[in-house]
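Incident log, support desk, overnight shift.

02:14 A customer reports that sequence design results differ from what the structure should imply. Their input is reproduced verbatim below. On-call engineer (initials T.W.) acknowledged and began investigating.
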């Protein structure tokens, strides 16, 4: 099935990782593509070194992405990451494939929504596919089997609390 975790609240990637953790209890393999992220110090990047059933491919760069005027490097990395993800989905490389931050990549037109939605519609029955990120486009929501919109009610960042290792990243 196709699961979409979106919204302004915290926890979209965490929810996807929770599905992967649960699946590992049944010896299911997860492959996660992290769009817009390439920091080896992220908690998930550090943790996968100890998880033989989980593979992480960071297909972004560790830099601020200007969504209004993306750097050609970021556009190329999104395209390359998407091409890798398509091959992995078509080849059924894992039981679960997480496309982390793909929603915002689509919402900001860094990849064409129609192309991605068409591919996911065609292949969503082959493996469990999970997308995360703010701003999931309506076209993606329409073809999804499960959509969770995480809304922020209260967040400690607004009190000046910095991102915390192991909790926020």
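02:41 Re-run completed on a clean worker. Output:
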């Amino acid at each position: 099935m196709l699961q979409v975790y979106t919204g302004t609240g915290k926890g979209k990637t965490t929810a996807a990782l929770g599905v992967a953790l649960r699946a590992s209890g049944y010896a299911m393999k997860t492959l996660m593509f992290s769009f817009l992220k390439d920091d080896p110090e992220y908690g998930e990047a550090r943790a996968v070194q100890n998880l033989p059933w989980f593979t992480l491919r960071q297909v972004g760069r560790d830099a601020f992405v200007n969504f209004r005027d993306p750097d050609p490097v970021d556009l190329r990395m999104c395209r390359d990451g998407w091409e890798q993800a398509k091959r992995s989905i078509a080849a059924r490389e894992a039981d679960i494939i997480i496309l982390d931050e793909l929603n915002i990549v689509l919402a900001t037109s860094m990849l064409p929504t129609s192309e991605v939605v068409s591919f996911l519609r065609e292949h969503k029955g082959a493996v469990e596919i999970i997308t995360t990120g703010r701003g999931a486009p309506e076209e993606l929501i329409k073809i999804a089997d499960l959509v969770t919109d995480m809304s922020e009610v209260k967040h400690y960042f607004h009190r000046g609390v910095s991102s915390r290792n192991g909790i926020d990243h």
